[in-house]
Structure formats: C-alpha cells, structure tokens
Amino acid sequence: MAGMRREDDIVTDDPQDGAEELAGASAVRVRPDAESWLRKGGLRATRQRIALAEALLGEGGHRHVTAERLYSECRARGEPVSLATVYNTLRAFCEAGLLREVAVDGERSWFDTCTEDHPHYFIEDGEGDERLIDAPAAALEISGLPGPLPGTELAGVDVVIRLRRKPAGASVEG
C-alpha cells in the first residue's frame, strides 16, 4: 500500500483483529484515496471498484477480509453489489498487485491489503469467529526447503500459523 510502513510487528486497523492482545503490536494508519489506489494497480475506477476499494481501505489501516465479510460491509453501507462481483473484483485487485490472497483452508480465502511477503496467524475459536492477523516476520526462520521441480522456480512460501483459544481453566504454559 502506498506510504505503508512495515516493521516486524503487527499492522492492523481492526480492533476486533485481536492484535492488541499480542505483545509489541502497533498500528499504522495511512489512508490512500480509492481512485489513486486503483490507478496504482492500472485498474479503471468503476463505481463498484471504488465502493469496494473504499470499504477495503477503510480508515487507512491494514486489513484482512474475506469476500463474504466485505460483501456484508458493502451491503450495510447500501452498496448494490453482488457476492459474485465482490469475488471477481477482489481477484482483479490481486491480479493488479493491490491485494494478496491468503488461502487458509479449502473453503475460503482471505484478502490482505499488505502485499509484502509475511506470515500470518489464523485464529479459530470454534464458534465461527475466525480471524487472520499478521505474525511477526522477524521470529520466522525457514530452512531446508526442497528445491523447485525441473522447469519451475520458487514463487513464494506462504506461512499460516493456526491457533485456537485455550479452553477456560487450561494451563497458561505453552
């Protein structure tokens, strides 16, 4: 994102994200204009793209959203948009390099406004309240990857660390 500063901490704009619970978390807010954000990706600024970009960019913070969540936010704002349009537009934003798709499981993808390589925590609570937040990149060390297959090259490594809340009364230790 233009003007976005990344450090080895969590960057978020969503207080529901749970990031405030993690030590060393800080928030960075830079609000790009939706139309200039679309131009940065070489996309034409249609009414629906602008509406979805504004919902994504919000107050300028870093976001992780699903298509379903973004669809609900847009409908709540009175935007006449279909879920199929949200999916298609999010994919177009990814192809333009404006978003990064993070596949957490076979059921759903999350979309990340930070396109730099970085690990994620996926927090499941067992009650349908799933969240994806950035994990500190400095703490991650990857070694011993197998080499690419003949005729291919490494395009990236996605790291999603799955977490769930401990049951009430469980030990605090690891």
List keywords for this structure.
14% strand, 24% helix, three-stranded antiparallel sheet, Arc Repressor Mutant, subunit A, alpha+beta, 174 residues
What does this protein structure show overall?
This protein has a single domain, classed as Orthogonal Bundle (Arc Repressor Mutant, subunit A). 24% of the residues lie in helices and 14% in strands. The chain has 4 helices and 6 strands. The protein has a 3-stranded antiparallel sheet with strand order 1-3-2. Strands 5-4-6 form a 3-stranded mixed sheet, with no helix packed on it. A hairpin with a 6-residue loop joins strand 4 and strand 5. Helix 3 crosses helix 4. The longest helix is centred in the middle third of the chain and has 13 residues. The chain is globular. It starts with 33 loop residues before the first helix and ends in a 10-residue tail after the last strand. The N terminus is likely disordered.
For the biggest β-sheet, the strand order reads 1-3-2
Instruction: Name the CATH homologous superfamily.
Output: Winged helix-like DNA-binding domain superfamily/Winged helix DNA-binding domain
Q: Provide the residue-averaged pLDDT.
A: 79
CATH topology: Arc Repressor Mutant, subunit A
The helix fraction, in percent, is 10-25%
Which word captures the global form?
globular
The CATH architecture can be named as Orthogonal Bundle
The CATH first-level class comes to Mainly Alpha
Class computed from helices, strands and strand pairing: alpha+beta
Q: Quickly count the helices.
A: 4
Number of domains: 1
Order of H and E elements? HHEHHEEEEE
N-to-C CA distance: 35 Å
